[in-house]
Amino acid sequence: MATVHLEEMGTERPPIDMDFPWFGVPVKVAPTAGNPLLLARFAERAAAVDALDDVNSMLIIMDFLKGLIDESDWDVFMDTAAKHNQQVTDLMEVAKRLVVAVARFPIGPPSDSSNGRPSTNPRSRDGYYSAVATAMAASKGRPDIKMIIWQAHQARTAHQAAAG
After folding, report:
1. CB neighbours (10 Å) of residue 41?
2. Residue with more model confidence, 133 or 43
3. What does the pLDDT read at residue 120?
4. 3, HSE (Cβ side, Cα atoms, 13 Å)
5. Exposed end of the chain (fewer CB within 10 Å): N or C?
6. 43 has pLDDT over 60
7. Structural domain containing residue 89
């Protein structure tokens, strides 16, 4: 039986170019931090962990945060967190603020020079809303995770309304 090769799939997305001060130390945001699949994966993994399982909950939170911080700055970020006695709840707040900031990050100007309002590809919107719905469903029983997802969604919606 012959193998069938399909055409190239996927949509190239521009990397995130952000940083933030962390106790006076500049920390770069991961270039893929804007990918809603990171949030969906986090929610899926968190939903599978018992809320009383502190060790696995911390590991999931740290893994999610590691996806938001540029790998070249991860050790500096964690060393600075330890130096300033940061707790897991403090790091969760950093993750939440990064998700909100990235959700507000504009995708960029339209590729054409038309004067009209740019149209949004319905598949990209469906993909975004599908990722949000999947993340919300996967976080069943975890109101803390649902709150992060909801806040990021609200920030994105507000940004789109202001831009439109």
Report:
1. 19
2. 43
3. 47
4. 2
5. N
6. yes
7. 19-104+122-163
**Is 97 a domain residue?**
yes
Note the pTM of the prediction, 2 decimals: 0.61
Residue 134's identity, in one-letter code, is T
Q: What angle do CA 108, 124, 10 make, to 5 degrees?
A: 90
Residues 164, 117 contacting (CB under 8 angstroms) = yes
Q: How many domains does the chain have?
A: 1
Q: Give a yes or no: residue 150 inside a domain.
A: yes
Task: Identify which of 84, 59, 72 has the alpha carbon closest to the alpha carbon of residue 19.
Answer: 72
Q: d(Cα 87, Cα 81) in Å, to the nearest integer?
A: 8
Rounded Cα–Cα distance for residues 45 and 161 (Å): 31
The answer to whether residue 89 sits within a structural domain is yes
